[in-house]
């Protein structure tokens, strides 16, 4: 199974027949859509615990590991 299908990752891609103006219009429309990303931050030292939480679907949204500070 492909990794991106397994983890529902998404990628924005350009196509050869899209112009810069098409991209500008798309981004203007996308900015008006109320997409809210949920992000949880964790210290890098907790990486293994965070991976377990992700595996168990205990984190909703993105888990971000923070280095330092």
- Counted up, domains total 1
Largest sheet, in brief, is: 2 strands, parallel
Q: What's the total helix number? A: 3
Average pLDDT level: 83
What ranges have pLDDT less than 50 throughout 5 or more consecutive residues?
Answer: none
Taken in chain order, the helices and strands follow as HHEHE
Shape: elongated
Distance between the termini: 38 Å
Rg over C-alpha atoms, rounded to the nearest angstrom: 17 Å
Beta strands, count: 2
Strand order of the largest sheet: 1-2
Report the sheet-strand fraction. 5-15%
Judged by helices, strands and strand pairing, the structural class is alpha+beta
Helix coverage percent of residues? 25-40%
Explain this structure.
The chain has helices spanning 3-6, 20-32, 47-55, and strands spanning 39-43, 62-66. It has one domain (3-66). The model has no long low-confidence stretch (mean pLDDT 83). The chain is elongated, with a radius of gyration of 17 Å. The relative contact order is 0.14. The protein starts with a helix and ends with a strand. Strand 1 (39-43), helix 3 (47-55) and strand 2 (62-66) form a beta-alpha-beta unit. Helix content is 38%, strand content 14%. The protein is built from three helices and two strands; from the N terminus they run ααβαβ. A two-stranded parallel ribbon has the order 1-2. It is α+β, with helices and mostly antiparallel strands.
Write the topology of this structure.
Elements: H1 3-6, H2 20-32, E1 39-43, H3 47-55, E2 62-66
């Amino acid at each position: 199974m492909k990794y991106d299908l397994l983890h529902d990752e998404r990628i924005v891609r350009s196509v050869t027949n899209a112009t810069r103006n098409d991209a500008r219009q798309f981004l203007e429309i996308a900015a008006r859509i109320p997409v809210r990303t949920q992000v949880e931050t964790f210290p890098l030292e907790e990486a293994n615990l965070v991976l377990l939480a992700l595996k168990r679907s205990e984190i909703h949204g993105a888990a971000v590991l923070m280095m330092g500070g």
